[in-house]
Write a structure and sequence with these properties.
The protein contains no helices and 7 strands. It is mainly beta. It has strands at residues 7-10, 25-30, 42-47, 52-64, 69-75, 89-93, 98-106. The radius of gyration is 13 Å and the shape is globular.
Length: 107
């Protein structure tokens, strides 16, 4: 199931910017192609093993030769104030689990 238009969701956790806080209103644009999703993008995705949806930061994007598709490694945050700290990697997802890309945040 794909999101066909902009959707607004409430942010549940601190993601990428120091000003983004839990409860902020976020708008997502549909993302249907692998080339639309880049490293450091915030995406609205379905996490594996469950029908749960969260906003996550794309930490890595890797081509998987066996499956012939990209794996998107997702994390919960990235510390821009201290680049030596790495984000906690939550797992991975395929493009079919990514529904949108963050475009705006309102407090």
């Amino acid at each position: 199931r794909r999101v066909r238009s902009r959707r607004c969701r409430r942010l549940r956790a601190i993601l990428r910017w120091p000003s983004d806080r839990s409860g902020d209103r976020c708008a997502y644009a549909p993302a249907t192609l692998e080339k639309q999703v880049l490293v450091n993008d915030v995406v609205f995705c379905e996490v594996q093993k469950g029908n749960r949806f969260y906003a996550h930061l794309v930490a890595r994007k890797e081509w998987h030769f066996r499956d012939e598709c990209y794996y998107f490694w997702i994390s919960n945050m990235k510390n821009l104030l201290d680049p030596t700290l790495h984000p906690w990697t939550n797992g991975w997802c395929h493009m079919k689990h990514i529904y949108g890309k963050l475009i705006t945040v309102e407090q």
